[in-house]
Write a structure and sequence with these properties.
The chain is of the alpha+beta class. It is about 25% helix and about 35% strand. The protein is built from five helices and ten strands. Strand 2 and strand 3 form a beta hairpin. The model has no long low-confidence stretch (mean pLDDT about 95).
Length: about 170
């Protein structure tokens, strides 16, 4: 089994990335705005800026190399939630938490009454008790979370990331 060390989430780097790219598109990543939305792609980019670690596990990991070489968790709302809350390997990991406990760089997911979640804005600040977010598809930076009309919300608090520190002899061959 590989061994991992946990590293802190660099919330300042995540915030700087969100600020820089909220109203633009980083050319290193495909823009999914016209094919389902770019919000979770943007949220993943922000989280990556704060961790600098992918999970390269095929299918169930979390990475982006190109439009055709990425995981569903990089761009899909539910897939990102599932990856972050269950990840025991490399890359970022999170826990679902009340919105009142979120910090800069964390993710809010918006859902319908049916429990279907469809949007992943990133926390970029606070105005009193109001959460301010950044997002793509409907580009925003510093938008109040309360301005969205979502009957259901959930918070994802990024706890950090794990990186591999060693391999077993069988992994080296």
């Amino acid at each position: 089994m590989p061994e991992f060390e946990t590293i802190p989430y660099d919330r300042n780097a995540a915030l700087a990335y969100a600020r820089r790219w909220a109203f633009r598109r980083n050319p290193a990543f495909y823009d999914f705005s016209l094919i389902g939305g770019d919000c979770t792609n943007f949220a993943s980019q922000v989280v990556y800026a704060g961790t600098k670690i992918f999970n390269l596990t095929p299918v169930y990991g979390w990475f982006y190399r190109s439009l055709n070489d990425r995981t569903a968790s990089w761009t899909g709302v539910e897939y990102l939630y599932n990856f972050l809350t269950t990840n025991q390997g490399e890359g970022p990991f999170a826990e679902e938490t009340p919105l009142s406990q979120l910090e800069i760089g964390d993710i809010v997911q918006l859902g319908r009454e049916t429990g279907d979640f469809y949007h992943s804005p990133v926390v970029v600040g606070f105005d009193g008790n109001e959460i301010l977010v950044a997002a793509h598809s409907y580009d925003a930076f510093g938008r109040t979370l309360s301005s969205y009309r979502a009957p259901v919300t959930r918070g994802l608090h990024i706890l950090g990331a794990r990186r591999r520190t060693s391999e077993t002899p069988s992994e080296k061959s």
